[in-house]
Every structure is written in C-alpha cells, then in structure tokens.
Amino acid sequence: SPAVAAGEVTKVYGSGDAAVHALRGVSVGFAHGAFTAIMGPSGSGKSTLMHCLAGLDTVDGGSVSLGQVELTRLNDRQLTQLRRDRFGFIFQSFNLLPTLTAEQNIRLPLDLAGRRRDQLWMDKVVGALGLRDRLSHRPSELSGGQQQRVACARALIHQPEVIFADEPTGNLDSRSGGEVLGFLRSSVREMGQTIVMVTHDPVAASYADRVVFLRDGRITGEMYRPTPDSVL
Ligand code: ADP
Ligand code: ADP
After folding, report:
1. Rounded to an integer, what distance in angstroms lies between the CA atom of residue 212 and that of residue 35?
2. Angstrom distances, CA of residue 36 to CA of 25, 74, 94, 116
3. Rounded to an integer, what distance in angstroms lies between the CA atom of residue 58 and that of residue 48?
4. For 12-42, what is each residue's pLDDT tens digit?
5. 67: CA distance to ligand 1 center in Å?
6. Predicted confidence (pLDDT) per residue in 195-218, tens digit
7. What positions does the domain ABC transporter occupy (predicted)?
8. Which residues of 100-117 are buried (b: 16+ CB within 10 A; e: fewer)?
9. Closest by alpha carbon to 200, among 16, 12, 15, 40?
10. Is the ipTM of this complex over 0.85?
11. Ligand 2 mean position to 83 CA, how many Å?
C-alpha cells in the first residue's frame, strides 16, 4: 500500500457563485521511497493538493491517508502532532530563521518536539547534503542553494516518512536548483523517505521518479522516469 494516498478528494474555496473548485475528485497514491513531482499550470490545484495531503488544509470530500491513518478523522491536535513527527516540509522561500546558525536551524524541529538529537543521523544528513563546513554560518552568509540544503536537512532531521516540497527551486538559479534536488534525491535514496514535490519547472520535475499532471483540479495523466523534454 502507498505511503500517502488521496481518494476522491474534493476541495472548494468560497461558496455560491464565488465557489472555486480547487480539487474535483483527485485519487492518487505515493509509493514508499518514491520521489513524485506534481505539475500543472498555475491555479490547477497543485498547492491545494499538497496542503490536503500534508494535513495543512482540510478536504471537503474524500479521504487522505498516511499508511493506515485516515487524516480526515484526526482532530487538530492529532494532526499537528502527526505533521511534526512524520512529515518534513521544504518551501520555496527556505523559511530559515535568520538569527540562528545553520546547525540551529537544522535542529529546530527536534527542539520544538522536545526530542533529543541522534548525532549519527545528524552527521549523516549534514554529510549527505554537503553542509559539514557550513554549520556555524547564518542564513545571510550562505548562498540560496546552501540555504535550501539547510532547509532540506531541517526537513529530514526528525526522520520523517514523507517530505513535502512546495516549489523548492522556485527561488534558485538552475545550477543551484539542480544541486539541491540532486543532493535531496540521493539523500532520500539512501535514507528511504517518500517525497512529494510541487513544481512547474520541467528540469526540477526530471529529478523525480514520476510526474503526476494536474489541470483544473483533476489529474490528467502521469509519467514515469520523466526527462525535462518529456514533461514540457
Ligand atoms: P496551483 O498551486 O496549481 O497554482 P492552487 O492550489 O494554489 O493552484 O489553487 C487552485 C485554485 O484554488 C485557484 O483557482 C486558486 O485561486 C484557488 N485558491 C487557492 N487557495 C485559495 C484560498 N485560500 N481561497 C480562495 N481560493 C483559493
Ligand atoms: P512558498 O514559499 O513555497 O510559497 P510558504 O512559505 O508561503 O511557501 O508556505 C506555504 C504554506 O505552508 C502556507 O499555507 C503556510 O501557512 C504553510 N507553512 C509555512 N511554513 C510552515 C511550517 N514551518 N510548517 C507547517 N506549515 C507551514
């Protein structure tokens, strides 16, 4: 069974004449250990789908499950805890705290959850993302690509099962974007996380194992082993 799955998910913003049907019955599964990109034009529902899968937004119909757990049956407190324990998030804007060093930013999810750090895992994540000699730097002293790799390490530090990445290369030039995704892909290959990434960049999508295409709130197709040309 998939790591994360959506079954006939619908999502409507607003009501009456102003209603926007952001998701119109989306069913999709994300296999354990797979790196999947969700692509589609602006407004097609990519972010909404990711937010519903990640329990950041509620669905209006259908179901979202993480393994055997049905997210729509959880209350807010349970959802917050599940997100904190089992999901990692990477954003377009990095979302690092400027006054903290790279190492402190990476440790933040552990500190917030009151969990002790596993030094071996910390070393593994930091090494895999090429950050060993950047740990004492603050975000302003790092390039965009390095900042996003710190954000990737932060997303992995509590050993989540699923990483959700929303346009992770949107603020990076193509070279550093490629570097970030290359590091992330090889890290999770080794460590086994499932990645769900929203992007409109064909080059970014080509790092995934599979691309799911959305249009007007519906899945219109999918492709395995994408290349930049094939997903254009
Ligand atoms: P994408 O990520 O593919 O650009 P979104 O999921 O952001 O698409 O948006 C899908 C549709 O839902 C769009 O028409 C958008 O305007 C609408 N939408 C998204 N978020 C909201 C919101 N909070 N309130 C009202 N409409 C929204
Ligand atoms: P982007 O820079 O990719 O547009 P944002 O920073 O705007 O992403 O965040 C996208 C969504 O995720 C927002 O709805 C926001 O509330 C939520 N979000 C942002 N940071 C976090 C976080 N650290 N943990 C959980 N949800 C977050």
Report:
1. 11
2. 19, 25, 20, 31
3. 10
4. 999 999 999 999 999 999 999 999 999 999 9
5. 27
6. 999 999 999 999 999 999 999 999
7. 4-232
8. ebbbbbbbbbbeeeeeee
9. 40
10. no
11. 13
Atom of ligand 1 nearest to the CA of 23: 10
171 CB near ligand 2 (under 6 Å): no
> Does position 188 have pLDDT exceeding 90, yes or no?
no
Give the Cα separation of 117 and 15 in Å (integer): 46
Cβ-Cβ contacts under 8 Å for 41 (sequence gap 6 or more): 200, 215
CB of 47 sitting under 6 A from ligand 1: yes
36 CB-contact burial (10 Å; exposed 0-12 / middle 13-18 / buried 19+): buried
Q: Phi, psi (5° rounding) for residue 144? A: -55, -45
What's the pTM value of the predicted model, to 2 decimals?
A: 0.89
Query: Measured from the CB, is residue 42 less than 6 Å from ligand 1?
Result: yes
Question: Does residue 206 have its Cβ closer than 6 Å to ligand 1?
Answer: no
